[in-house]
Design goal:
Elements lengths: L17 H5 L54 E2 L7 E7 L3 H11 L5 E5 L11 E3 H5 L7 E5 L1 E7 L2 E5 L3 E4 L1 H14 L3 E4 L2 E6 L4 E5 L4 E9 L20 E12 L8 E6 L9 H9 L3 E6 L4 E11 L5 H15 L3 E14 L10 E3 L15 H19 L8 H11 L2 H19 L2 H11 L4 H8 L5 H14 L2 H10 L1 H16 L1
Parallel strand pairs: 1-9, 2-3, 2-12, 3-9, 6-14, 12-18
Antiparallel strand pairs: 4-8, 5-8, 6-7, 10-11, 11-12, 13-16, 13-17, 14-15, 15-16
Amino acid sequence: MVTHFMLLKPLPLPTKNLHQLLHSPKLSPPLLPTTHHKKSSLSSTTQFRINSSTSKFGNFLDLKPEYQPQSLDIDLHWCHPSDQSRFDVIIIGAGPAGIRLAEQVSLYGIKVCCVDPNPLSMWPNNYGTWVDEFENLGLDDCFDKTWPMACVYLDEGRNKFLDCPYGRVSRKKLKEKLIKGCVSNGVRFYKAKVWKIEHKEFESRVLCDDGVELKGSLVVDASGFGSTFVEFDHRVKKRNHGFQIAHGILAEVDEHPFDLDKMVLMDWRDSHLGNEPYMRANNSKFPTFLYAMPFDSNLIFLEETSLVSRPVLSYVEVKRRMVARLRHLGIRVKRIVEDEKCLIPMGGPLPQIPQNVMAIGGISGVVHPSTGYMVARTMALAPVVASAIAECLGSTRMIRGKQLYSKVWNSLWPIESRLNREYYIFGMETLLKLDLNGTRRFFHTFFDLKPYYWKGFLSSKLTFMELTCLYISLFGHASNPSKFDIVTKCPIPLAKMMHNMALESIV
């Protein structure tokens, strides 16, 4: 969900990689080499400092991340332009979505090429998921760490304990597993950036920045949110996304107050802003929470998060709140192993369905509009899309062109999934209307539902009828102030949801 900014030239290899570090019982300097970090793009007038002399905890923002990600050392099957190869499927992007789909499609003997500027580079994002979601996909060996429970702090007097194991995904383990699957299945890789895609009736041409041209029956865009290859309805002038923004650090600390057998899914407490009246007032209107994963008593991942806002909350504001929170919790950051900035567009319209370019991952609309979760769902959807591709390109008839595009797009977004997404967008729009107290009341009721419902909602697994029951139950169990929030603040989002559902049903 998040992006690191480690942009300088590679340094000498550290004595331990990140995986070893996360499983090391204790940290002892010097464990990793110190790196020079690229200067913040914020102007000096917008940067801030909390005087370290006024607090023994100082300001962790002055510390520089020390972990330098390394590329994987795996022999790939490279695509050589001189071969004049033609492929069944060309996938743009070697992120989790692209590599997972390449692995799954190639299982059917379909000829796949994956194009990326650096296919073996480590993914910059950190991912968390419920353990059983990865277990069901055979990916339970791809965790850095798991916790038997999760907890939610609503305020100083109320919390919820969620009896569901949660895990931090190991980017290295997951990518290694998927890449090795690609290699075993004969996937070809090409190291380049895609500049342009041209379409004919039954074939597409992918033009790369080095002048090389690749041809294929189907092009899949898995290059992320910033892609320009996927088309949206031209009548939609404003996509109206919500935005999740966060600042996270994996840090060595003197100590922290969190239980080692529980990860903190959400901490909505705001007592850390008691001496910051301006920040407290702003946080009441546009709340942020802490997401925390304690690895041991001295190593912890901490992330201050704006669940969803429109327009996006200031990144500087998020970091200021995090500094105040850690100071209040008595957490002194000694070293930052890695840091990251997360900015996720949420909700908005789906791509035009169907169209000549298939999409998967961030640009395809699979991000959960209410939570920002995506990786587990993408891992689960890739085999479904791969099966649809195989029905067309793996058959003796070789179904291509419009029939192929329609088949694969509707495997990703069948009508029920489109209707369900309107429910999730309504959830996002509801959260956008709530202040801190309203948000607390919402999650107090939400996590009082049966785990099947709240977990199914977070994992995008509920059927349309189950989602309908969830919303009815949520309203029925809500406190009177929460019902007042829904009745007074959500009529317009509710009307939009019903309108969009009616349109989807007609189509």
